[in-house]
Amino acid sequence: MTALDRIAHAGRWRRLPLAEKALLALGLLALALILPPWPGAVLVLAAAALAALAGARVPPGAWLGAFAAPAAFIATGALALVVTWGEDGLALVAEPLVAVRPALRALAATAALLLLALTTPAPVLVKALRLPPELADLALALYRFLFGLLDTLRAMQAAQQARLGGAGSIRSAGLLAAALLPRALERARRLEIGLAARLHTGTLDTLAAEPAPSPRRLAAIAILLAAVAGGAAWLQ
Fold first, then answer.
1. Any idea where the domains of the chain sit in the sequence?
2. Is 85 left (phi over 0), alpha (psi -120 to 50) or beta?
3. Alpha-carbon distance 153 to 64, whole Å?
4. 196, exposed or middle or buried, with CB in 10 Å at 0-12, 13-18, 19+?
5. Total Cβ atoms within 10 A of residue 180
6. Tell me: the pLDDT tens digits for 168-187?
7. Which of 16, 105, 194, 222 has its CA 20 to 30 A from that of 138?
8. How far is Cα 117 from Cα 32, in angstroms, rounded to an integer?
9. Which residue stretches of the chain are H helix?
């Protein structure tokens, strides 16, 4: 299980209907794309962060940790829009505002989607896509398998470092990959045998009753979205 899934499963909004969380997150995403970067995107970013930290009670460290990687990627891309490397070294090719505007939109959109990811487990999101049962089961199986494989890789890396195995060199990476591939194949074989022993018919049926959305919460979300849009229009 990934860190995002652990937070989503243990979060305060775990039992809320997906329709409410999707309305809030996707509504903020739409506002981030429609409203002007200033002050619209800033207000969207603040609303998404407030909903995650104060509403869903996501730990601040976890939220910052999940937000840091995409924020760094966005900052690097924004820097590339205005800075170039030439014969005389670094030079500006455009005004900084050219990069600030799309960066603010991207940060606000990222915060909105992160709100949905930190409050809704991946199986619930896959179920909401209404995929054919075979595709949904395959997606969930691959999702769990890949992150289980990453856990195995981390354990092997820790063991390699503990034995002074030269972690970080090309040779040690090759040895790690050579040892990981048989383990991955063995894990897949055990999974197939286990499903066959349970008379797997092609679908993994689970009981997941989705509660009905609350009209009061839907109205509160609509008011919040309208307040963000109104605040952006007033401050502009």
1. 3-121, 131-197
2. beta
3. 25
4. exposed
5. 15
6. 577 777 777 788 888 878 87
7. 16
8. 17
9. 3-10, 18-34, 42-50, 60-82, 96-119, 122-128, 133-162, 170-197, 215-235
